[in-house]
Design a protein that fits this description.
about 170 residues; alpha+beta; 2 domains; five-stranded antiparallel beta sheet; three-stranded antiparallel beta sheet; about 30% helix; about 30% strand
């Protein structure tokens, strides 16, 4: 009977610790973006599809709103550490006049949870796909990088070489 108050106190201490840990974790957690890429076309009713373009979309997965930054590409880990050190990453300048690019008012403001920002890049024989980049991603308002799956860029490079480097 003398152990009941001690047991209740230890149980309360345990649950208080879990509650405190969760609160700290939730407060330091930063927003995450899911980055999707692909070669796309814009289709409008009554009009032919647009020319193909490279699309990069960043979706805010939360838990808080965040700003979206610039689009970057980088070489593979092996190339960055043991290959040519001159060009290991690059900034991509989007085509802001393209209809698929989000308006500048969206890109310069906070992106709410569940909303997305889109960038369009030209898909031609001189686009960034001609070089051996391994990843494409976007920077957020905290300076963190969010990378698209490597398979997305590999599929785009495969389509690039099929369309522009086959006879």
């Amino acid at each position: 009977m003398d152990y009941l108050p001690v047991f209740i106190s230890l149980t309360a201490l345990f649950f208080s610790g879990i509650s405190l840990g969760w609160t700290i974790y939730r407060d330091i957690q930063r927003p995450r973006f899911k980055v999707l890429t692909g070669i796309n076309r814009v289709a409008q009713q009554g009009a032919p599809p647009s020319e193909p373009f490279i699309g990069v979309e960043a979706i805010n997965l939360g838990p808080t709103p965040n700003k979206i930054g610039l689009v970057f590409v980088r070489k593979s880990w092996w190339q960055r550490n043991f290959g040519n050190q001159d060009k290991t990453s690059a900034f991509l300048f989007a085509d802001y006049a393209h209809t698929a690019t989000s308006p500048q008012s969206v890109l310069s403001n906070r992106i709410e949870v569940g909303e997305s920002a889109r960038y369009a890049f030209p898909f031609n024989s001189e686009c960034f796909l001609k070089e051996d980049w391994a990843q494409i991603g976007v920077a957020d308002g905290f300076g963190r990088m969010h990378w698209a799956p490597k398979d997305d860029l590999a599929k785009m490079r495969k389509q690039y070489f099929y369309e522009f480097h086959t006879n």
